[in-house]
Amino acid sequence: MQAVHTFTSSLTIGSPTLVDGLGAYPLFRAADSTPFYDTLSEAVRAGTLHISEMSEAGVVPQLRVVNDGARPVLIVDGEELVGAKQNRIVNLTVLVPERSTMTLPVTCVEAGRWRRVSPEFVPAERAFYASGRRDKLGQVTASMRTLGAALADQSAVWSEIAHKSERLGAASPTRAAAAMYEQRRDALDRIVSSFPPADRQVGAVFTIRGAIVGLDAFDHPRTWAQMVPKLLRSYGLDTLDSAAAGSGPAAADPLRFLEAVAHAGCTVYPAVGAGIDLRFEGGGIVGAALDTAKGVVHMVAFPASDVVQPTGRRWFRRP
What we know:
- With 319 residues, the chain is of the alpha+beta class.
- It has one domain.
- 29% of the residues lie in helices and 34% in strands.
- It is built from eight helices and 20 strands.
- Strands 1, 2, 3, 13, 14, 15, 16, 17 and 18 form a nine-stranded antiparallel sheet that branches.
- It is globular and about 50 Å long.
- The two termini are 29 Å apart.
């Protein structure tokens, strides 16, 4: 799709930073002076965005979003929302139009609680861990293709959280994913402080122990600066899990990965909110982008879970 090619061709790749097994190749692009939207955290702090259960009874895969502000609000795939009846993560990137009310597709990341603790949700300073975002993205894409709805596999998400929590030694009475981030808070804070956003940076290709594990990129450096602590905790938690990603010296080819994203098969769906939702599949890639009248505002991509990292300049799929 032309929008994806236009966006990826606007990106340039910088020299990587490597800290405690996590690597990041910065992505740069020229941008206008300010974004045309607010981020989720900005809008909630300003009191213009309100996220709540759909009703007093609640509905696990849906939340109600009210934007009272004069600007659209960008909510990013995998951002975690804390409070109300149980913590949730956002199923896909959405742009909430100004002065509007809409339904937000979400997935529960706290299986053992269904009890209201607050009238509204607040955004956590983290996103769901990257390998979980990858799997959820594939599930949501399949659901959009077959059911026309942006649903994840709730049982699979709960199961993966339970296994990862056990590996990281992070018990929670409500089986909350949040416990893993709290248990490794110091290590994650150290990772966040080690990757400050650079001038003109809008994203990064991330590696763990030498293997490319994902890419997140936005249209504007200000958005990246707002989102990077959440995303670093997302990729960082996988870095702290010995079961995640590679185990050898870095041999990543971020340019080849970016090219694979640009040339992956792309299917167009109506967006939840403003814009159109682009889904990537094929060539060893799973990903998505939100395209708007002003261009792509967020792109996320991962190596498909059945793909081994490249040797030389080719990608190899597991048999």
